[in-house]
Design goal:
50% of the residues are buried. The protein has a single domain, classed as 7 Propeller (Methylamine Dehydrogenase, Chain H), CATH 2.130.10. It starts with 7 loop residues before the first helix and ends in a 15-residue tail after the last helix. It is mainly beta. It has two helices and 28 strands.
Length: 335
């Protein structure tokens, strides 16, 4: 998770632990004419970004979902990948241009690197620094980048893709790397971890991802690596997102089951649902915000849908403040 600090109110409400709290699960369905949906990221105010697809891949449309406004379409033929606390959104179009939207009502703007097209934009921090990878030409191989409106593009050599950036401008990405402007590239993992990907990093410097020998992992800022293990019936795990509380989400066996890892314990996100809720096959958990809200994809009553799973105490406090309205399409609760 690449977002800002949580409030004292939410810390108090969450003190009992997420896995022990009740929760509500909200449904995000594809736009008309689309059959698939991917919820990519969520910020601390509950703004979710992602994209809808059809089976052939010919149709593509990004979206923003908010508790008060529901699904709002961004531009056609674009992927929305991440959103920061101020509502800045990043992604790309099918032409291979990195994009950002200042907010959900703005037209996209391109991020370009000299000699290449813009590739894809994958992560953004609260300062508006964007990471991703450039496009590819023979003279300019694909590399990870860091971009902001003031300094432009910084190319991070010998990397294929940058996935996330925290408030200290520490970048993580493919080929097991951490990067800072002062320290350059540092490889994560043991000698036996000959390949892997780092998907996210929080402001405390804890990184998560997958390593070839270790599997799903988290690494704290002092370099200590913890293997997360996997769920029963699975052979491996992939950690995709982390918040400032150290809660980690991801999936096992390439989308077999979504998980939440908290306090040394891995739980299937499906197990947090009511029996008979209509939800099944919660395959992917892609992000978690500082209030413990999880976003991912699964199946609801036989149809592809994205979910926003909200811990009950935090939800009830927001309801009292008017933060969640009747525009939400579905409400589920587990005692």
């Amino acid at each position: 998770m690449k977002r800002s600090m949580i409030t004292v109110l939410i810390v108090v409400l969450m003190a009992g632990g997420f896995a022990q709290a009740g929760r509500q699960t909200y449904e995000l369905t594809p736009f008309d004419g689309y059959t698939g949906i991917q919820a990519s990221a969520i910020n601390d105010s509950g703004m979710v970004v992602g994209y809808c697809t059809n089976p052939s891949g010919a149709l593509l449309k990004s979206f923003v979902w908010t508790p008060s406004g529901g699904m709002v379409a961004l531009e056609d033929q674009t992927y929305a990948r991440d959103v920061n606390s101020s509502g800045m959104i990043v992604g790309e179009n099918k032409n291979g241009d990195s994009l950002y939207w200042s907010d959900s009502t703005s037209a996209s703007q391109k991020i370009t690197a000299a000699g290449t097209n813009g590739g894809i934009a994958i992560g953004v921090n609260d300062a508006g620094q964007v990471v991703g990878r450039t496009g590819y030409t023979e003279a300019n191989p694909r590399v990870g980048y860091l971009w902001d409106a003031t300094n432009g593009i910084t190319l991070i050599s010998e990397t294929q893709q940058a996935n996330a950036v925290n408030s200290s401008a520490e970048v993580v990405g493919n080929q097991q790397f951490r990067w800072t402007a002062s320290g350059g590239l540092v490889k994560i993992g043991t000698d036996d971890d000959t390949w892997g990907t780092v998907y996210d990093i929080n402001d405390a410097g804890t990184a998560v991802g997958y390593l070839g020998d270790t599997g799903g992992f988290m690494q704290t800022s002092d370099g200590t690596i913890t293997a997360l293990g996997t769920l029963s019936g699975c052979s491996n795990s992939y950690a995709m997102g982390i918040n400032e509380l150290g809660q980690v989400v991801g999936d096992c066996d390439y989308g077999s089951k979504a998980f939440l890892y908290e306090g040394g314990t891995m739980t299937a996100v499906e197990d947090l649902l009511d029996a008979g809720s209509g939800w099944s096959d919660l395959k992917y958990a892609n992000d978690i915000n500082e209030n413990g809200w999880i976003v991912g994809t699964g199946t609801l009553n036989g149809e592809s849908a994205a979910f926003v799973m909200v811990p009950e105490p935090a939800t009830m406090s927001l309801l009292a403040l008017g933060g969640l309205g009747v525009l939400l399409r579905r409400r589920r609760r587990t005692a």
